[in-house]
Every structure is written in structure tokens, then in C-alpha cells.
Write a structure and sequence with these properties.
heterodimer, A: alpha/beta, Rossmann fold, 38% helix, 25% strand, globular, B: alpha+beta, Beta-Lactamase, 3 domains, five-stranded antiparallel β-sheet, rod-shaped
Chain lengths: 114, 490
């Protein structure tokens, strides 16, 4: 089933690749946010089924966005080069996509969170 | 002398006296200043008998010459000089200290006493001069008329104990010198570590001059105490070395780290008397170690991020490619460009880079010879991330210029102008203009390639600015207008 996805990623080339991957998997990218304020805005108001959340946004951690999503009950996965060790313990257990990841990894994560 | 011959007078003198007693009996005294044994005055005999029966080393110096009569205990002290020393004149028998004994004789025969404690004298022993120490007590011996006729000396050699004390003192001095020379914090603890006796903090920690039971509160953090106490307990029970790296409150109030080691001092029964310890300030080492861990962690992240970027280039370049060899060339050129951006930022330790230098480096591989390139205007320092985004965008601009634009013929040129502007509300904006001229007539591209997307979307999102692209017939142009603070900081 096609999902409405938000991509939060500060590296534009990587953001574009994730968009392509999502579209190739049959999902719809409703927005792409490169910075914390715009990501928070879409996370709070957007009509979203899933979010790919880069942990480091131009030097700021994206955990406030994760908190908003958690509160709204929107499924999400972290995407990070740091690996699971860099994740705030408050979000332990959330799926983590370790960069670089494949389109199959992305599909599997979206599958698990429903 | 024949012991069976009847000699009633000398047979009673001396009485006993061990080896020396027998020697005195058998020696021919007639050629000495003392004369034959049976003619010795009673005072001499009495003094001789007294010293022969004493277990303490005693020597009698008789007459002006100080003729020496001594006992077995003294003969040990005399060493190889014995038995020749017996009956010799003191100034000759002990020729190396003749002056000393000259004074002894003068004082003693004038009826006075002399006393020396741990007196050092250089004596010939085993053929070579060696220092010796002794306690010496001299007193006059009176003859039958009541006048001093000799000097009696109690001689106790103290060389061994003097040397032992000296070694102890030197050891203590070495220890004191060591504790002064070292930059380590030194401390002493009671046997059970309940009380700190003393701590010399070397300006790192506050000093403790008097014993205190409140040392843990003074130097440690409450949350660290259980772990440190466990190491202490283990050291006490094993009577082994205490060794622990732990945090401390420093004298200036800051938090530091020490590597602390202490050894137990044991008594003869093997019980701990106290602990002596030294602690090295390793705050700086810990800080560098943490910094290094951070750098390694960050480097790992950057490597992963770079790999993800390479993956993104590959994904985008090959996804819709019809001409694979050409796509491979584009992909390789993009990787080279990314590599150059890395070089630039490594030189700047990934902190910031000169914007103009970044543009210069990004276009170098594409520029033709002969000065068809002009880069002018204001320069600013930009963040590592901005530098990377600009490198990728200007790589694409250069590629386009070589393929279709001003660098695709023999005469075209590219002019780049950079300007920092202050707008009405006081904020700064930075503008980059890329203008091509003299190239072949420009045609509007049929479809938007990855390069154009990267320039337009990527740079706009990365810089928070406006990007304009124009395919005017006389030449391609590109414009970026972005908040300067964002280029600097994000």
C-alpha cells in the first residue's frame, strides 16, 4: 500500500536518492525537510504515514522531531551514519537505517512498522 | 716459660683473663719500659686484673709512653695488630692516630678524663686506611703515690651502627629528594584508609597538612566513592598495591582525573602500618583521549556519509542512464570532485573553507588553458557543509560549460562575481553570479539532468537561498542569493 512519506535529510544528494528509492517502491514523498525548524513544522501538521529521519541536521540532533512523531503516533525510522549508538535512549527500539542503506533495507523498515 | 717451675709471686698474676691473660704471663717484659712482670707496681697489676676480667673492650696505656695492656674484647677491635700490639707504645702501635693519642696521654696523665661519642678515626685495617667510629672514655689510673701513672680507655666500636644510621639518613634524604623532585601528588593513609595522614597536592589538589577522616568528601565525588572503596578494600585484604584511575576535585574547583597508586608499609609482624601513595594528574591525558574518541567517532560518521553520497550519485547517475559509458564518465567526474572537496576540507580540519578557493578548486578540472576564467569579488569563510554543496554544484556548472557552454568552443569564457551585501534590515546576503559568454548559441535543454537538479534544488535547500538558472541564447547564467550567516554556520 502506498504511503505518504516525509524525508528529513540535510544532504540534498542523499535526500534525492531516498526520494527516488521511495518512489520506486511505490510510495509518495509529500515533503523533504533539510533543517530542524521545517522538519518540526511538517512533523506537527503533515498528513503522514511514515518518516525517514536523519539524526544530524546541519549540526542539530533531530530528536525533537522524533518526539513529535512519537506523540502523534506516526511511524518513523532513523537514518544515520553513527549507527544505533548515537540514538537518544528515549527512542531505543525504533528502527535505525545505517547509512549507506539499500532500497531493500528501506522497504523492510517500512514493512515492519506497518 | 715452664709452668711447672715454682714461681709463687707471678703465679698469682694475672688471674684468668683468657688468651691475653696467658700472653701476659708468658711474655718477656724485661725489655719493655714496664720491666719484669714480678716487679710491676701493684697499681698496674690491679688495673690489669680489672680490665682482664671485663667483657667490655678496655685498654690500659701505662706510663709516659702509654704501653698497651688490653683484654680479649679489645683484641677483637685491634684485629691483625694483635698480638704485636700488646706491650707496644700507643703512639707506635696506632701510628696513624699518634696525634690523637698524644693528646689522650697528656690529658689523662694530668688527671683529667676524656669522652668521645661516635668519634671517627681513620685506622689501617687489612693494609689500607678505613674510617672507623667508636665511643671512647678515658680516665687516669693512679699509682701507689696517688699520681696519674696511666690512662685507662673503654673502647666500643660503633662503626656498624654509625654506617647503618648513615644509610638510613641517606635513604630518608633520597626519599625526601624524590618526593620534592616528583610532580606527583604524594600522600599517606592510615592502615585502614579511614584517615588521611598527609597529602601534598602540588597545586593540583588542596594540601592536607594534618590527619583528617573527611578526605573522601574533600577530594572525591560521592558517586565515585563505592568503586574506589572497592579497590581500597581489595588492596587492604591482599596487602598489595592500590591502583586506581579516578576523578578528583581539584584545588581550583574544577574536576580532574588522577592515576593513584599506593603501597602498604608493613611491620615485622606483617601487619599494615600505613600506606604511602603517589598520584599523577592525568586530566589532560583523559581530555585528549576523549577528544580522540570523539574524532574517531566523527570520522566514522563522515566516512559513512561520504559513502551515502557516492551511493546517491550512483543512484541518480545510473538510474535513468541510456548511455552507460557516458554515465560512467559523469559518475567518475563527480567522485573526483567530491574527493577534491574532501582535500580542501581536510586542509582546514573540516572546520571552514574560503568560498572563493572552494569555487576555484571545484572548476579547475574543467577549465581550458588560456585564462577563460575570471573569479572576482568578496570572499567569506563558509562551513564544511556549504563548501561541499558548492563544490558539487560548481562541478556540475563546469561540466555543463565544457559540454554545451562557454568552454565547449575556442573563445568562450566564464566570469564569476561574488559579493557580500548588507540589506535594509541589517542582515548580510551573499551573491554568486556565474555568467558565460562567447560560447555557441545556447539551447534550452530537452529535459532536466541530475546536474541541473543538483544545482537548483540541492543548492537552494543547502543554503536556504534562491537559485536562478537562465538558458539565454548569448550565454548560460546562474545566480545564488543566500543569507551569509547560513553559509558561514550551517
Amino acid at each position: 500500500m502506498a504511503k505518504r512519506v516525509l524525508v528529513v535529510e540535510d544532504e540534498m544528494t542523499i535526500a534525492m536518492m531516498i526520494e527516488d528509492m521511495l518512489m520506486d517502491l511505490g510510495h509518495e514523498v509529500v515533503a523533504t525537510a533539510a533543517r530542524l525548524p521545517s522538519a518540526l513544522e511538517v512533523a506537527a501538521d503533515g498528513n503522514l504515514d511514515f518518516v525517514v529521519l536523519d539524526v544530524n541536521l546541519a549540526g542539530h540532533k533531530s530528536f525533537p522531531v522524533a518526539a513529535v512523531l512519537q506523540q502523534r503516533g506516526i511511524p518513523f525510522a532513523f537514518a544515520t551514519g553513527y549507527g544505533p549508538a548515537g540514538i537518544d535512549p528515549a527512542f531505543a527500539g525504533r528502527p535505525v537505517l545505517t547509512k549507506p542503506f539499500t532500497s531493500a533495507d528501506l522497504a523492510a523498515v517500512i514493512e515492519t512498522v506497518g | 716459660m715452664d709452668s711447672e717451675s715454682p714461681q709463687p709471686l707471678t703465679a698469682r698474676f694475672p688471674v684468668g683473663g683468657g688468651e691475653i691473660g696467658r700472653l701476659i704471663q708468658t711474655r718477656d717484659w724485661t725489655k719493655t719500659p714496664l720491666g719484669p712482670l714480678d716487679l710491676w707496681p701493684q697499681s698496674l697489676k690491679t688495673a690489669t686484673n680489672m680490665l682482664l676480667l671485663s667483657p667490655v673492650p678496655i685498654v690500659l696505656l701505662w706510663g709516659e709512653d702509654g704501653v698497651m695492656i688490653y683484654n680479649d674484647a679489645y683484641s677483637v677491635f685491634a684485629g691483625s695488630r694483635h698480638p704485636d700490639l700488646l706491650g707496644s707504645k700507643v703512639r707506635e702501635g696506632w701510628s696513624e692516630i699518634a696525634d690523637f693519642n698524644d693528646n689522650v696521654m697528656k690529658v689523662g696523665l694530668s688527671g683529667k678524663t676524656l669522652a668521645y661519642e661516635n668519634q671517627e678515626l681513620t685506622l689501617l685495617r687489612h693494609g689500607s686506611p678505613a674510617p672507623a667510629w667508636m665511643n671512647l672514655d678515658y680516665s687516669p689510673v693512679l699509682d701507689e703515690s696517688g699520681k696519674p701513672a696511666g690512662v685507662i680507655a673503654i673502647v666500643v666500636e660503633t662503626t656498624k651502627s654509625v654506617l647503618a644510621q648513615r644509610r638510613l639518613r641517606e635513604s630518608e634524604e633520597r626519599f625526601r629528594a624524590f618526593t620534592t623532585a616528583t610532580t606527583d601528588i604524594v600522600y599517606r593513609m592510615s592502615a585502614d584508609w579511614k584517615e588521611m595522614q598527609q597529602l601534598d597536592g602540588r597545586n593540583v589538589l588542596a594540601d592536607t597538612a594534618n590527619p583528617t577522616v573527611a578526605w573522601q568528601e574533600a577530594y572525591l565525588f560521592p558517586e565515585d566513592i563505592p568503586a574506589i572503596q572497592a579497590v581500597i578494600d581489595e588492596a587492604i585484604s591482599s596487602k598489595g598495591v592500590f591502583e586506581c584511575e579516578h576523578r578528583v576535585r581539584r584545588a581550583d574547583g574544577s574536576t580532574g582525573w588522577v592515576l593513584s597508586r599506593a603501597v602498604p608499609l608493613l611491620n615485622d609482624a606483617g601487619s599494615i602500618v600505613e600506606w604511602f601513595g603517589a598520584a599523577t594528574d592525568i586530566t589532560e591525558r583523559r581530555r585528549k583521549q576523549q577528544q580522540l574518541e570523539l574524532v574517531v567517532h566523527e570520522l566514522n560518521h563522515r566516512v559513512k556519509n561520504n559513502l551515502a553520497m557516492v551511493q546517491a550519485f550512483a543512484y541518480r547517475t545510473f538510474r535513468d542512464a541510456e548511455d552507460i559509458p557516458r554515465a560512467l564518465d559523469s559518475f567518475t567526474a563527480r567522485l573526483v570532485s567530491l574527493g577534491r572537496a574532501n582535500d580542501l576540507l581536510t586542509g582546514e580540519l573540516w572546520s571552514s573553507a574560503s568560498l572563493k578557493q572552494t569555487l576555484d578548486q571545484a572548476t579547475v578540472p574543467h577549465r581550458p588553458d588560456g585564462g577563460r576564467w575570471e573569479l572576482a569579488g568578496d570572499d567569506i569563510r563558509v562551513s564544511a557543509k556549504t563548501a561541499l554543496a558548492l563544490t558539487m554544484a560548481f562541478h556540475e556548472l563546469g561540466t555543463n560549460a565544457v559540454r554545451h557552454g562557454a568552454w565547449s568552443n575556442d573563445g568562450g569564457a566564464v566570469r564569476v562575481r561574488c559579493s557580500l551585501q548588507i540589506i535594509d534590515d541589517g542582515t548580510q546576503r551573499y551573491r554568486i553570479d556565474w555568467d558565460e559568454h562567447g560560447g555557441p548559441p545556447v539551447e534550452q535543454p530537452k529535459r532536466k539532468g541530475f546536474g541541473t537538479v543538483l544545482i537548483q534544488r540541492g543548492l537552494a535547500a543547502e543554503t536556504g537561498g534562491n537559485v536562478e538558472i537562465s538558458f539565454a541564447e548569448r550565454g548560460f547564467s546562474f545566480r545564488l542569493d543566500a543569507p551569509a550567516d547560513r553559509l558561514r554556520n550551517e
